[in-house]
Hints:
By secondary structure, this protein is mostly helical. It is 75% helix and 0% strand.
Amino acid sequence: MFKSIKADPEPQRVLAFVRRLVQMATLNEPSYTAATLLIISELIRCKNDLRFQLYSLDQISKQQKQSGSKGADQDDDDEEHFIDVDKVEQSTEKKAAEG
């Protein structure tokens, strides 16, 4: 896994994978967490751009929290929100009938 992430030329994909590893590390046993953190530290050492991306991601999230800016479609609890396709179609049909 380390070799494939290290060889990946797409920095956004590497960043997404590292974020997912950190998420999974919080849910698993201590040995998995330690191994994950070791892999991430080696990746950061090998890929300098990853270090800056992680730092800038942290800065962006801090700025968003300070400004209190949220998207119009995001809830305050930051949970994912799923809408069934048939309900979207129904609401679109209702809007078309009304307007």
